[in-house]
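User: Teach me something about this protein's shape.
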Amino acid sequence: MKKVYQLIGTGALTTSLLLGITTVGNTDHAIAAQSESETTPWYNYDGYTYNNPNFVLEHSFVEALYADNVTINGYQTEADAKTGTGGESTTVYDTKILKDKNGKVGTSCLMLNQVSLLNKHSKKLIKRQ
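Assistant: First, the predicted structure itself:
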């Protein structure tokens, strides 16, 4: 009789360990997927870019460029767009948006006031020294 109780106890312990490991494993994948989506840098800019070019110097803008996750005036560029094969261009505010034949945005041409941008950048350089 003692061996039957040991067998039942061992079976219950093994079952609970397997269920616990499976639950923890699934939770780790869910946490990893959630944290990856939360840490992807993004940047959204709406409006005229010519007189307000300072956003291109922001760290969050540069990080979002590296992550290919920048939206300018409601258009986000897509890496698989082929703009050299025809398509159309759209102007929103002072930004020119180039689309390929399939309607995918390949390029956003920003008009920037270089004098304003240089003044802002030189002020940052002076503050660092």
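Now, about its shape. The chain has a mean pLDDT of 74. The first strand starts at residue 43 and ends at 45. If you'd like, I can walk through any region in more detail.
User: That's plenty for now, thanks!
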